[in-house]
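mind reviewing this stuff:

——
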Amino acid sequence: MLSQEDNDLLTQTGPGTPAGNLLRRYWQPVALSEELTEDGTPLALRVMGEDLTLFRDEFERLGLLGLRCPHRGTDLSYGRIEDGGLRCVYHGWLFDVHGNCLDQPGEPEWSKFAGKVRQRSYPCTERGGLIFAYMGPGEPPELPDYECLGLPEENVLVTKFYHECNYLHGHEGNIDPQHLATLHYVLPGEVADAGVRWDAKGIDVAPRIEVEETDYGIRIYSGRDLDDEHDYVRITNYVYPAAVAFPALRPPDITGAPIGTAVGAGFYGVNWQVPIDDTHHWKYMLLVSPDAPLAKERIGPVILADMGPGYAHVRDRSNRYLQDRAEMRRTTFLGMGASFALQDKFAVEAQGDIQDRTVEHLGYADKPVALSRRLLLRAIREVAEGGEAPHVLRDPAQNRMEHLRVYEAVVPKTEEWSSIWQKDAAPG
Protein backbone atom coordinates (compact mmCIF):
# COMPACT_ATOMS: atom_id res chain seq x y z
CA MET A 1 0.00 0.00 0.00
CA LEU A 2 0.96 3.66 -0.32
CA SER A 3 0.62 6.62 1.97
CA GLN A 4 -1.92 9.22 0.90
CA GLU A 5 0.95 11.63 0.21
CA ASP A 6 2.66 9.20 -2.17
CA ASN A 7 -0.61 8.30 -3.87
CA ASP A 8 -1.23 11.99 -4.51
CA LEU A 9 2.33 12.43 -5.77
CA LEU A 10 1.85 9.67 -8.34
CA THR A 11 -1.66 10.55 -9.54
CA GLN A 12 -1.82 14.36 -9.70
CA THR A 13 -0.41 15.50 -13.05
CA GLY A 14 -1.68 19.03 -13.67
CA PRO A 15 0.61 22.03 -14.27
CA GLY A 16 2.99 22.58 -11.37
CA THR A 17 2.41 19.22 -9.68
CA PRO A 18 5.45 17.01 -9.00
CA ALA A 19 4.23 14.13 -11.18
CA GLY A 20 3.10 16.58 -13.84
CA ASN A 21 6.59 18.09 -13.86
CA LEU A 22 8.07 14.61 -14.36
CA LEU A 23 5.71 13.57 -17.16
CA ARG A 24 6.37 16.84 -18.98
CA ARG A 25 10.08 15.94 -19.28
CA TYR A 26 9.19 13.37 -21.94
CA TRP A 27 7.69 13.47 -25.42
CA GLN A 28 4.08 12.39 -24.96
CA PRO A 29 1.65 11.22 -27.65
CA VAL A 30 -1.19 13.75 -27.79
CA ALA A 31 -3.11 12.59 -30.88
CA LEU A 32 -3.23 10.08 -33.69
CA SER A 33 -2.06 11.37 -37.06
CA GLU A 34 -5.43 10.39 -38.51
CA GLU A 35 -7.21 12.83 -36.19
CA LEU A 36 -5.87 15.81 -38.13
CA THR A 37 -8.07 15.43 -41.18
CA GLU A 38 -7.39 16.70 -44.69
CA ASP A 39 -9.93 19.51 -44.36
CA GLY A 40 -7.61 21.21 -41.87
CA THR A 41 -9.92 21.17 -38.86
CA PRO A 42 -7.92 21.89 -35.68
CA LEU A 43 -8.30 19.47 -32.81
CA ALA A 44 -9.28 20.48 -29.27
CA LEU A 45 -7.28 18.52 -26.68
CA ARG A 46 -6.87 18.23 -22.95
CA VAL A 47 -3.47 16.91 -21.86
CA MET A 48 -2.40 16.68 -18.20
CA GLY A 49 -5.05 19.22 -17.24
CA GLU A 50 -4.15 21.74 -19.97
CA ASP A 51 -6.67 22.73 -22.63
CA LEU A 52 -4.96 22.93 -26.02
CA THR A 53 -5.58 22.95 -29.77
CA LEU A 54 -3.55 21.01 -32.31
CA PHE A 55 -3.32 21.95 -35.99
CA ARG A 56 -1.29 21.77 -39.19
CA ASP A 57 -0.65 24.99 -41.00
CA GLU A 58 -0.68 25.20 -44.79
CA PHE A 59 3.03 24.32 -44.80
CA GLU A 60 2.33 21.03 -42.93
CA ARG A 61 3.94 22.34 -39.76
CA LEU A 62 2.40 21.07 -36.52
CA GLY A 63 1.28 23.53 -33.88
CA LEU A 64 0.02 22.92 -30.34
CA LEU A 65 -1.33 26.08 -28.72
CA GLY A 66 -3.35 27.00 -25.66
CA LEU A 67 -7.02 26.50 -26.49
CA ARG A 68 -8.25 29.98 -25.57
CA CYS A 69 -7.31 33.00 -27.62
CA PRO A 70 -5.32 35.40 -25.40
CA HIS A 71 -7.44 38.29 -26.67
CA ARG A 72 -10.89 37.48 -25.26
CA GLY A 73 -10.77 33.74 -24.63
CA THR A 74 -12.49 32.27 -27.68
CA ASP A 75 -11.84 28.61 -28.49
CA LEU A 76 -9.12 28.53 -31.16
CA SER A 77 -10.04 25.04 -32.38
CA TYR A 78 -12.79 26.75 -34.43
CA GLY A 79 -10.18 28.90 -36.14
CA ARG A 80 -9.09 29.21 -39.76
CA ILE A 81 -5.84 27.74 -41.11
CA GLU A 82 -4.39 30.55 -43.24
CA ASP A 83 -1.55 33.01 -43.67
CA GLY A 84 1.00 30.81 -41.91
CA GLY A 85 -0.95 30.00 -38.79
CA LEU A 86 -4.24 29.62 -36.93
CA ARG A 87 -6.59 32.61 -37.04
CA CYS A 88 -9.20 33.17 -34.33
CA VAL A 89 -12.62 33.61 -35.91
CA TYR A 90 -13.82 36.16 -33.32
CA HIS A 91 -11.49 39.11 -33.97
CA GLY A 92 -9.05 37.62 -36.45
CA TRP A 93 -5.91 37.40 -34.35
CA LEU A 94 -3.42 35.10 -36.07
CA PHE A 95 -0.90 32.81 -34.35
CA ASP A 96 1.89 30.71 -35.84
CA VAL A 97 2.96 27.27 -34.61
CA HIS A 98 5.37 28.89 -32.13
CA GLY A 99 2.65 31.01 -30.52
CA ASN A 100 3.77 34.28 -32.11
CA CYS A 101 0.94 36.71 -32.84
CA LEU A 102 1.32 37.58 -36.52
CA ASP A 103 -1.74 39.72 -37.09
CA GLN A 104 -4.33 41.76 -35.16
CA PRO A 105 -6.73 43.19 -37.74
CA GLY A 106 -8.45 45.51 -35.26
CA GLU A 107 -5.26 47.33 -34.26
CA PRO A 108 -3.97 50.48 -36.02
CA GLU A 109 -1.23 50.01 -38.60
CA TRP A 110 1.27 51.74 -36.35
CA SER A 111 0.51 49.44 -33.39
CA LYS A 112 3.23 47.11 -32.14
CA PHE A 113 0.85 45.36 -29.79
CA ALA A 114 1.07 42.03 -31.68
CA GLY A 115 4.74 41.74 -30.78
CA LYS A 116 3.84 41.86 -27.10
CA VAL A 117 1.39 38.95 -27.26
CA ARG A 118 2.34 35.29 -27.27
CA GLN A 119 0.14 32.25 -27.04
CA ARG A 120 1.26 29.25 -25.00
CA SER A 121 2.80 26.74 -27.43
CA TYR A 122 4.56 23.38 -27.34
CA PRO A 123 6.85 21.75 -29.92
CA CYS A 124 5.46 18.74 -31.78
CA THR A 125 6.81 15.93 -33.91
CA GLU A 126 5.19 13.04 -35.75
CA ARG A 127 6.28 9.43 -36.00
CA GLY A 128 4.64 6.06 -36.42
CA GLY A 129 1.11 7.39 -36.81
CA LEU A 130 1.34 9.41 -33.58
CA ILE A 131 1.75 13.11 -32.91
CA PHE A 132 4.00 13.82 -29.93
CA ALA A 133 4.36 17.00 -27.89
CA TYR A 134 7.04 18.13 -25.48
CA MET A 135 5.39 20.16 -22.72
CA GLY A 136 8.37 20.56 -20.40
CA PRO A 137 11.00 23.23 -19.80
CA GLY A 138 14.07 23.92 -21.93
CA GLU A 139 15.10 22.22 -25.13
CA PRO A 140 13.21 19.00 -25.96
CA PRO A 141 15.18 15.77 -25.54
CA GLU A 142 15.52 13.15 -28.26
CA LEU A 143 12.39 11.16 -29.01
CA PRO A 144 13.61 7.63 -28.22
CA ASP A 145 14.24 5.58 -31.32
CA TYR A 146 11.70 2.87 -30.56
CA GLU A 147 11.40 0.28 -33.31
CA CYS A 148 7.61 0.57 -33.39
CA LEU A 149 7.81 4.22 -34.49
CA GLY A 150 9.98 3.53 -37.53
CA LEU A 151 8.27 0.58 -39.24
CA PRO A 152 6.20 0.74 -42.46
CA GLU A 153 2.58 1.74 -41.92
CA GLU A 154 1.34 -1.69 -42.98
CA ASN A 155 3.30 -3.35 -40.15
CA VAL A 156 1.67 -1.40 -37.31
CA LEU A 157 -1.89 -0.84 -36.17
CA VAL A 158 -2.20 2.41 -34.21
CA THR A 159 -5.23 3.48 -32.21
CA LYS A 160 -6.25 4.83 -28.81
CA PHE A 161 -8.89 4.17 -26.15
CA TYR A 162 -10.63 6.63 -23.84
CA HIS A 163 -10.52 5.74 -20.13
CA GLU A 164 -12.53 7.23 -17.27
CA CYS A 165 -9.90 6.87 -14.56
CA ASN A 166 -6.46 8.06 -13.54
CA TYR A 167 -3.58 7.18 -15.85
CA LEU A 168 -1.82 5.17 -13.12
CA HIS A 169 -4.60 2.57 -13.15
CA GLY A 170 -3.94 1.80 -16.79
CA HIS A 171 -0.18 1.89 -16.37
CA GLU A 172 -0.22 -0.56 -13.47
CA GLY A 173 -2.60 -2.86 -15.35
CA ASN A 174 -0.13 -2.97 -18.22
CA ILE A 175 2.65 -4.38 -16.02
CA ASP A 176 0.53 -6.96 -14.18
CA PRO A 177 1.33 -10.42 -15.64
CA GLN A 178 -0.98 -12.44 -13.43
CA HIS A 179 -4.31 -11.08 -14.71
CA LEU A 180 -3.75 -12.61 -18.16
CA ALA A 181 -4.89 -15.99 -16.82
CA THR A 182 -8.05 -14.64 -15.17
CA LEU A 183 -9.44 -11.41 -16.64
CA HIS A 184 -8.66 -12.47 -20.24
CA TYR A 185 -9.36 -16.18 -19.83
CA VAL A 186 -11.37 -17.94 -22.53
CA LEU A 187 -13.12 -21.12 -21.48
CA PRO A 188 -11.72 -24.30 -23.09
CA GLY A 189 -13.30 -25.29 -26.39
CA GLU A 190 -14.52 -21.82 -27.29
CA VAL A 191 -11.30 -20.26 -28.59
CA ALA A 192 -12.30 -20.16 -32.23
CA ASP A 193 -15.73 -18.68 -31.51
CA ALA A 194 -14.34 -16.02 -29.22
CA GLY A 195 -11.77 -14.94 -31.81
CA VAL A 196 -8.75 -14.80 -29.53
CA ARG A 197 -5.72 -16.99 -29.08
CA TRP A 198 -5.52 -18.77 -25.75
CA ASP A 199 -4.43 -22.29 -24.95
CA ALA A 200 -2.52 -24.27 -22.32
CA LYS A 201 -0.40 -21.21 -21.56
CA GLY A 202 -3.32 -19.81 -19.61
CA ILE A 203 -3.81 -22.69 -17.20
CA ASP A 204 -1.07 -21.75 -14.72
CA VAL A 205 -2.66 -18.79 -12.94
CA ALA A 206 0.29 -18.15 -10.61
CA PRO A 207 3.28 -17.20 -12.81
CA ARG A 208 6.76 -16.90 -11.38
CA ILE A 209 7.82 -13.27 -11.73
CA GLU A 210 11.21 -11.60 -11.75
CA VAL A 211 11.91 -7.89 -12.18
CA GLU A 212 15.10 -6.18 -13.30
CA GLU A 213 15.69 -2.42 -13.19
CA THR A 214 17.08 -0.99 -16.46
CA ASP A 215 18.01 2.45 -17.78
CA TYR A 216 14.61 2.71 -19.51
CA GLY A 217 12.53 1.30 -16.65
CA ILE A 218 11.94 -2.37 -15.78
CA ARG A 219 12.40 -5.68 -17.59
CA ILE A 220 9.67 -8.02 -16.34
CA TYR A 221 9.97 -11.80 -16.65
CA SER A 222 6.94 -14.01 -16.09
CA GLY A 223 7.06 -17.78 -16.43
CA ARG A 224 4.34 -20.42 -16.33
CA ASP A 225 4.71 -24.19 -16.07
CA LEU A 226 3.93 -25.79 -19.42
CA ASP A 227 5.05 -29.33 -18.62
CA ASP A 228 7.74 -31.10 -16.57
CA GLU A 229 10.52 -29.84 -18.81
CA HIS A 230 9.36 -26.50 -20.21
CA ASP A 231 8.24 -23.06 -19.15
CA TYR A 232 6.23 -20.51 -21.10
CA VAL A 233 8.14 -17.25 -20.55
CA ARG A 234 7.15 -13.68 -21.43
CA ILE A 235 9.35 -10.60 -21.27
CA THR A 236 7.48 -7.33 -20.85
CA ASN A 237 9.10 -3.91 -20.47
CA TYR A 238 7.97 -0.94 -18.44
CA VAL A 239 9.28 2.21 -20.11
CA TYR A 240 9.43 5.60 -18.37
CA PRO A 241 7.20 7.34 -17.62
CA ALA A 242 4.03 5.31 -18.37
CA ALA A 243 4.48 2.99 -21.35
CA VAL A 244 4.84 -0.75 -21.76
CA ALA A 245 6.04 -3.06 -24.55
CA PHE A 246 4.59 -6.54 -24.23
CA PRO A 247 4.21 -9.84 -26.12
CA ALA A 248 0.79 -9.64 -27.72
CA LEU A 249 -1.75 -12.42 -27.40
CA ARG A 250 -2.84 -12.33 -30.99
CA PRO A 251 -5.92 -13.60 -32.78
CA PRO A 252 -5.16 -16.41 -35.26
CA ASP A 253 -3.86 -15.65 -38.73
CA ILE A 254 -2.95 -12.01 -38.06
CA THR A 255 0.49 -12.73 -39.45
CA GLY A 256 -0.21 -16.22 -40.79
CA ALA A 257 0.75 -18.20 -37.67
CA PRO A 258 -1.72 -20.82 -36.38
CA ILE A 259 -3.24 -20.77 -32.92
CA GLY A 260 -0.77 -21.90 -30.28
CA THR A 261 2.39 -20.95 -32.15
CA ALA A 262 5.16 -19.58 -29.90
CA VAL A 263 5.65 -16.16 -31.45
CA GLY A 264 9.13 -15.48 -30.07
CA ALA A 265 9.95 -11.88 -30.93
CA GLY A 266 7.74 -11.63 -34.00
CA PHE A 267 4.69 -9.75 -32.70
CA TYR A 268 4.20 -7.36 -29.81
CA GLY A 269 2.15 -4.49 -28.48
CA VAL A 270 2.88 -1.09 -26.98
CA ASN A 271 0.54 0.72 -24.59
CA TRP A 272 1.22 4.35 -23.69
CA GLN A 273 -0.87 5.94 -20.95
CA VAL A 274 -1.28 9.74 -21.17
CA PRO A 275 -3.33 11.74 -18.65
CA ILE A 276 -6.18 13.90 -19.91
CA ASP A 277 -6.65 15.10 -16.35
CA ASP A 278 -6.46 13.32 -13.01
CA THR A 279 -9.63 11.26 -13.57
CA HIS A 280 -9.40 10.49 -17.31
CA HIS A 281 -6.68 9.31 -19.66
CA TRP A 282 -5.91 7.97 -23.13
CA LYS A 283 -4.31 4.61 -23.78
CA TYR A 284 -2.42 4.80 -27.06
CA MET A 285 -1.97 1.30 -28.47
CA LEU A 286 0.36 0.04 -31.19
CA LEU A 287 0.25 -3.55 -32.40
CA VAL A 288 3.53 -4.28 -34.12
CA SER A 289 4.66 -6.92 -36.60
CA PRO A 290 8.32 -6.09 -37.34
CA ASP A 291 8.88 -8.61 -40.13
CA ALA A 292 5.58 -8.79 -42.02
CA PRO A 293 2.51 -6.66 -42.72
CA LEU A 294 -0.39 -7.05 -40.32
CA ALA A 295 -3.63 -8.50 -41.63
CA LYS A 296 -5.51 -5.43 -40.41
CA GLU A 297 -8.77 -6.59 -41.91
CA ARG A 298 -8.64 -9.51 -39.45
CA ILE A 299 -7.18 -7.83 -36.40
CA GLY A 300 -9.18 -4.63 -36.61
CA PRO A 301 -12.58 -6.12 -35.73
CA VAL A 302 -11.06 -7.86 -32.68
CA ILE A 303 -9.01 -4.96 -31.32
CA LEU A 304 -11.64 -2.32 -32.08
CA ALA A 305 -14.68 -4.34 -31.02
CA ASP A 306 -17.41 -2.27 -29.35
CA MET A 307 -15.77 1.03 -30.31
CA GLY A 308 -18.06 4.04 -30.60
CA PRO A 309 -17.41 7.64 -31.64
CA GLY A 310 -14.39 9.46 -30.25
CA TYR A 311 -12.32 6.33 -29.62
CA ALA A 312 -14.59 5.44 -26.69
CA HIS A 313 -16.04 1.99 -26.11
CA VAL A 314 -19.80 1.60 -26.28
CA ARG A 315 -19.52 -0.61 -23.20
CA ASP A 316 -18.86 1.65 -20.22
CA ARG A 317 -19.80 2.32 -16.61
CA SER A 318 -23.23 3.66 -17.57
CA ASN A 319 -24.36 0.28 -18.94
CA ARG A 320 -22.16 -1.90 -16.70
CA TYR A 321 -20.09 -2.76 -19.77
CA LEU A 322 -22.99 -4.91 -21.03
CA GLN A 323 -21.67 -7.81 -19.00
CA ASP A 324 -23.36 -11.05 -20.09
CA ARG A 325 -23.71 -13.74 -17.42
CA ALA A 326 -24.61 -16.36 -20.03
CA GLU A 327 -21.35 -15.58 -21.83
CA MET A 328 -19.50 -16.02 -18.53
CA ARG A 329 -20.85 -19.56 -18.27
CA ARG A 330 -20.28 -20.38 -21.92
CA THR A 331 -17.29 -18.53 -23.35
CA THR A 332 -15.30 -15.95 -21.38
CA PHE A 333 -14.31 -15.54 -17.75
CA LEU A 334 -15.45 -11.88 -17.70
CA GLY A 335 -18.52 -11.92 -19.95
CA MET A 336 -17.67 -8.73 -21.84
CA GLY A 337 -16.73 -10.01 -25.28
CA ALA A 338 -13.34 -10.89 -26.73
CA SER A 339 -11.58 -7.51 -26.84
CA PHE A 340 -8.60 -7.45 -24.48
CA ALA A 341 -8.59 -3.64 -24.67
CA LEU A 342 -12.18 -3.47 -23.42
CA GLN A 343 -11.51 -6.04 -20.71
CA ASP A 344 -8.52 -4.05 -19.46
CA LYS A 345 -10.52 -0.82 -19.61
CA PHE A 346 -13.25 -2.31 -17.44
CA ALA A 347 -10.77 -3.58 -14.85
CA VAL A 348 -8.98 -0.27 -14.36
CA GLU A 349 -12.11 1.89 -14.48
CA ALA A 350 -13.71 -0.40 -11.90
CA GLN A 351 -11.02 0.75 -9.44
CA GLY A 352 -12.71 4.17 -9.33
CA ASP A 353 -11.58 7.57 -10.59
CA ILE A 354 -8.41 7.49 -8.49
CA GLN A 355 -7.69 4.26 -6.62
CA ASP A 356 -7.23 4.55 -2.86
CA ARG A 357 -3.89 2.77 -2.56
CA THR A 358 -3.76 3.31 1.21
CA VAL A 359 -6.05 0.31 1.74
CA GLU A 360 -4.78 -2.17 -0.87
CA HIS A 361 -2.85 -5.37 -0.17
CA LEU A 362 -0.10 -6.15 -2.68
CA GLY A 363 1.06 -9.75 -3.11
CA TYR A 364 3.82 -11.67 -4.85
CA ALA A 365 2.39 -11.11 -8.34
CA ASP A 366 2.45 -7.35 -7.79
CA LYS A 367 6.26 -7.14 -7.82
CA PRO A 368 6.35 -5.10 -11.06
CA VAL A 369 3.73 -2.68 -9.75
CA ALA A 370 5.58 -2.18 -6.47
CA LEU A 371 8.92 -1.56 -8.19
CA SER A 372 7.45 0.81 -10.77
CA ARG A 373 5.94 2.92 -7.98
CA ARG A 374 9.28 3.14 -6.22
CA LEU A 375 11.01 4.17 -9.43
CA LEU A 376 8.37 6.77 -10.31
CA LEU A 377 8.43 8.25 -6.82
CA ARG A 378 12.21 8.40 -6.94
CA ALA A 379 12.10 10.13 -10.34
CA ILE A 380 9.44 12.60 -9.19
CA ARG A 381 11.56 13.60 -6.20
CA GLU A 382 14.78 13.83 -8.22
CA VAL A 383 13.16 16.17 -10.74
CA ALA A 384 11.67 18.23 -7.89
CA GLU A 385 15.21 18.66 -6.55
CA GLY A 386 16.51 19.85 -9.91
CA GLY A 387 17.77 16.55 -11.31
CA GLU A 388 17.31 14.94 -14.71
CA ALA A 389 14.46 12.53 -15.31
CA PRO A 390 15.42 8.91 -16.11
CA HIS A 391 15.38 7.76 -19.74
CA VAL A 392 15.57 11.34 -21.02
CA LEU A 393 17.99 11.17 -23.94
CA ARG A 394 20.03 14.25 -24.87
CA ASP A 395 22.75 12.76 -27.06
CA PRO A 396 21.61 11.45 -30.49
CA ALA A 397 24.53 9.02 -30.46
CA GLN A 398 23.08 7.39 -27.33
CA ASN A 399 19.57 7.12 -28.77
CA ARG A 400 19.65 3.37 -29.34
CA MET A 401 17.00 0.96 -28.06
CA GLU A 402 18.38 -2.46 -29.03
CA HIS A 403 18.27 -3.62 -25.42
CA LEU A 404 14.55 -2.87 -25.09
CA ARG A 405 13.27 -6.27 -26.14
CA VAL A 406 9.96 -8.09 -26.02
CA TYR A 407 9.79 -11.86 -26.01
CA GLU A 408 7.44 -14.82 -25.66
CA ALA A 409 8.62 -18.43 -25.98
CA VAL A 410 8.58 -21.95 -24.65
CA VAL A 411 11.99 -22.62 -23.08
CA PRO A 412 13.61 -25.47 -21.12
CA LYS A 413 13.27 -25.16 -17.37
CA THR A 414 17.06 -25.15 -17.17
CA GLU A 415 17.27 -21.93 -19.19
CA GLU A 416 18.29 -18.78 -17.31
CA TRP A 417 15.55 -16.23 -17.98
CA SER A 418 17.88 -13.26 -17.79
CA SER A 419 19.71 -14.49 -20.91
CA ILE A 420 16.63 -15.05 -23.08
CA TRP A 421 16.20 -11.48 -24.30
CA GLN A 422 19.82 -11.36 -25.47
CA LYS A 423 19.49 -14.29 -27.89
CA ASP A 424 17.07 -13.56 -30.70
CA ALA A 425 14.43 -11.25 -29.27
CA ALA A 426 13.43 -8.24 -31.34
CA PRO A 427 13.89 -4.61 -30.34
CA GLY A 428 10.78 -3.09 -28.77
Remarks:
- The chain has two domains: 27-134, 147-427.
- The chain has eight helices and 20 strands.
